[in-house]
Design a protein that fits this description.
homodimer, Rossmann fold, seven-stranded parallel beta sheet, 13 helices, about 15% strand
Chain lengths: ~300, ~300
């Protein structure tokens, strides 16, 4: 049986192998992804974001458990901007999820930034497709931080969850910046700490300032994920949002938005690679950079030069 | 006198006007940037990053003051992934820097993500060039979060500073992921809190695992930025790193790395815009996205189709 068949039947090892190929940028992975793509689009995608230390992993763990209890299968993609140098930290983080490791209904994958010139978002989208084609009912994408790519990854989910913790002071502001308008659900985790009600109030006040474009009124929930408190309610809220989208044709709309984002990321990556390879192959790339660095040309003129040579 | 002349003479209003044009993606801004570019390359660029709530703004404020005390002029670029929806938060954040507002030797600019399809890194690079051409001796770029673009923005600086705070537990791990290897200097801010020494020890341990490639041994410093403690030492460490780079031809090397990054970001943005406009102008973009969403084609084949049409 070939790798595509195995993945479609939910073979975790075949899926993991393809994910590694995706991360390494293997050309073969593209052939496989093309074959898999028409089997995607069934999974419901949940995005979870929030600052470091907000307990996203524990919450993801809790949501996974609730969905399993309802008989649903779950894929988890943890996006960590990291490097070989710091791979250990990620490993430690993932250990928390190990209690699902013997459950064939759960598949967990950590994504790391390998190179330093993009590609993380594209690779994450590809891994989601592999899980989707493999029949996972729900896919949870978890991202650290408030970076632009990370926001987009979560925005492209069907349900986006923004996690905050009480008593971070400035952090509520930092959370607002960028992710406030993408949240369908807001979670104040570690809600047994001082300041939980204040954090909830601040989020609700900010929500009142904005207006949802799709008729959904974002919810704010309290959890203490390490004790499992509020997690069932969170899972319930996810299912409500899913039902809401289903009723209002929102799922098709979100699917289209997601397709645009996936297409855009891929186009950007492949275009740049294609054109840069062209410049590098005739040995002019290094010279061009030297000239920019020496101020003999400027970046805009250099890019125009390259575009012209590429016939664009 | 034209706008370029005014900017070169350090006119803050002319500079601010160009920065707004850059943020709005005005085509005229490109003409101006091309004229300015050969006057850049003199400023020393400092990148400051760390998680929300770590006190980056206060530290930046302190560094600015120390540099001013030494008679140096300073530009500050605060990169906040935000939106019109949340602009208020940023404003509040900037108020802390207001004590420099009457000092013509300091120029402060907040950058916000306008659209949601990239361009922040490119715009930030352009704003740095405007400050550089305007004669600022030092430019401090401050970024929130640990996103991929944000890491690259800081990496492209001459001196990169990574800020942590004690007692964040998991956060030290999250900080390690992605930014540990880009730091020339590490600052444990709010060092009057419990756990400062532990945080320092953890950072030093992680540093021992990695090895610097350029001969510089990263330093770990303690600060209490709100009280000004340790800030003079931090400024001193920045100057030491600058002297180190100067001695070892490191500045030229970093300049070249920065040129590559600037070129890459710009190429990526302009290529994608150019090609997407082509697809959009003949009305096929929407149809293409529909077909991807309906699984009639896959993103890889769709991108290949577009590349082929563009003759690439």
């Amino acid at each position: 049986m070939d790798q595509v068949q195995k993945i479609l039947q939910g073979d975790p090892r075949a899926a993991a192998r393809l994910m590694t190929m995706i991360e390494n940028g293997s050309p073969e992975s593209i052939t496989l992804l093309k074959s898999l793509y028409r089997h995607t689009g069934r999974a419901y995608v949940i995005g979870v974001t929030g600052p470091p230390g907000s307990g996203k992993s524990t919450l993801t763990d809790g949501i996974t458990e609730e969905l399993r209890r309802r008989g649903k299968t779950v894929g988890v993609v943890a996006v960590d901007p990291t490097s070989p140098f710091t791979g250990g930290a990620i490993l430690a983080d993932r250990i928390r999820m190990q209690r699902h490791s013997l459950d064939s209904g759960v598949f967990i994958r950590s994504m790391a930034t390998r190179g330093h010139l993009g590609g993380l978002a594209r690779a994450t989208n590809d891994v989601v497709d592999v899980l989707d084609a493999g029949g996972k009912d729900y896919i949870i994408i978890e991202t650290v931080g408030v970076g632009q790519d990370e926001i987009e990854i979560v925005r492209s989910a069907h349900t986006s969850i923004v996690v905050a913790v009480p008593g971070m002071g400035d952090d509520i502001q930092a959370i607002k910046a960028g992710v406030m308008e993408i949240g369908d659900l807001f979670v104040v985790n570690k809600a047994d700490r001082d300041g939980a009600d204040k954090a909830i109030m601040e989020i609700e006040m900010t929500l009142h300032l904005g207006k949802g474009t799709d008729g959904w009124r974002p919810k704010v929930l309290k959890t203490v994920a390490v004790k499992g408190e509020g997690v069932a309610e969170l899972a319930q809220a996810i299912l409500e949002h899913q039902a809401f989208l289903q009723q209002r044709d929102g799922r098709r709309q979100k699917g289209k938005e997601r397709s645009y984002w996936v297409f855009f990321e891929l186009l950007q990556e492949r275009l740049t690679t294609r054109v840069l390879e062209g410049v590098a192959s005739n040995g002019t790339l290094d010279g061009l950079i030297e000239r920019i660095a020496a101020r003999e040309t400027d970046p805009y003129s250099a890019v125009e030069e390259v575009l012209k040579k590429a016939g664009l």
